[in-house]
Amino acid sequence: MTQRLDDEHYPAYSIGRAAEMVGATPGFLRSLDEAKLLDPQRSGGGHRRYSRHELRLAARVRELLDHGTALDAACRIVVLEDQLDEARRTIADQRNG
């Protein structure tokens, strides 16, 4: 159970709770699903479940939109930022390991 709490990719949040945490609407999160930025897992009943990682991506898109960036551009920026962060983590792991 503790592993799940530490796992940023564990789908712990319902769409309503995720939207509340991001400061958006469930419709906003669904639009990010449609834009292929997010791919939430589904519960046994078919409900979307979001991870902390997905919430961080959604919050960043929300921030960019609030500053006037178009949705498609915001999604692309967030994908590139996420890829850069992953590359930096990989490099740091290789240097330390």
Automatic annotation (TrEMBL):
PROSITE patterns: HTH_MERR_2. Residues 12-80 form the HTH merR-type domain. It comes from the Bacteria. Keywords: DNA-binding. It comes from Actinomycetospora chibensis. InterPro entries: DNA-bd_dom_put_sf, MerR-type_HTH_dom, MerR_fam. This is MerR family transcriptional regulator.
